[in-house]
Amino acid sequence: MAVKTYRPITPSRRYLTVSDFSEITADRPQKSLLAKYSRTGGRNNYGRNTNINKGGGHKRRYRLIDFRRENLGIKGTVSTIEYDPNRSARIALVTYTDGEKRYILAPQGLTIGQTISAGPDADIKPGNALPLKSIPLGENIHNIELKIKGGAQLVRSAGAAAQLVAKEGEYATVKLPSGEMRKVSLECYASIGAVSNPEHQNRIIGKAGRSRWLNRRPHNRGVTKNPVDHPMGGGEGKSAGGRHPCSPTGLLAKGLKTRTNKRTQKFIVRKRSK
Question: 132 burial class (0-12, 13-18, 19+ CB within 10 angstroms)?
Fold first, then answer.
């Protein structure tokens, strides 16, 4: 999983870097595990543009990922490691002994032909999913559930890994990549290891066209616009905006607390590192 660079034969190629995709083993995805992926263009269900910097992008099909790992006690063999355009990590196609095929997030170190399983008695090796009560302290984990049998919600992006710090009563304490320490039920499942493709953060987009492939349109700062287009626009010459940073609709962009779910506040042992 190295980063590939190019000879600077054009200005855009001078800084552009991409993954070398050396770990990819299949050109085409499993047809039975594909679903339609509709693009919104930044518009909501009323057709109003709620994200002015979205639009275009390459056509994609969604890969159905098994975040629940419900095939407990059934062994599966890794058939392929594939690219997924909808996420930063790689995915692995697993063929189980009963003939069923499912995609999972590929952890670092997963290889073709490796046997994986899920359940309380599974081995502690990358790709296996176990309840937190069965995982030893200090182990790196990813794909962590927040609700029992609710499917993995935490630590799913490329290169990410959390650490199991402590177990007390009905809860385990997990240190997330952000630095936050959080309590999670011991019955919740997590996968062993760190997520694949750690070099993803080192890539350089390199040119405007590549951002367009990713469904990102050009972005203008609010202070460069007219008052009719943005609350921070207007003024003679260069202006700092004259008010606290905000969105085009007036929502504060800095310093405003966005966490509103006070019910789960008790599960946060330590807030994320600043």
Answer: buried
Residue 183: inside a domain, yes or no? yes
CA distance 54 to 62: 19
Q: Tell me how far apart the 2 most distant CA atoms of the chain are, in Å.
A: 71
- Whether 133 shows a pLDDT value over 70: the answer reads yes
pLDDT at 78 over 90: yes
The reply to whether 237 falls in a domain is: no
What does the alpha-carbon distance between residue 197 and residue 272 come to, in Å, rounded to a whole number? 24
Output the domain CATH number for residue 149: 2.40.50.140
Is 233 a domain residue? no
Q: Is 164 left (phi over 0), alpha (psi -120 to 50) or beta?
A: beta
Q: How many domains does the chain have?
A: 1
Q: Which domain holds residue 45?
A: 3-201
Q: How far apart are CA 181 and CA 186, in angstroms?
A: 15
Token digits of residue 149: 């049998």
pLDDT at 259: 84
Residue 173 in 3-state DSSP?
A: strand
Please name the residues in contact with 217: beta carbons below 8 A apart, sequence gap of 6 or more.
52, 53, 54, 55, 56
Residue 25 in this model has a pLDDT that exceeds 70: yes
Please list, in sequence order, all residues whose beta carbon lies within 8 angstroms of the beta carbon of residue 81, skipping any fewer than 6 positions away.
23, 24, 25, 26, 90, 91, 92, 106, 110, 112, 196
Give the lowest-confidence range in 56-70, 108-122, 232-246.
Answer: 232-246
Encoded amino acid at 210, one letter: R
In a domain, 238, yes or no: no
Q: What percent of the chain has pLDDT over 70?
A: 99
Predicted TM-score of the model (pTM)? 0.91
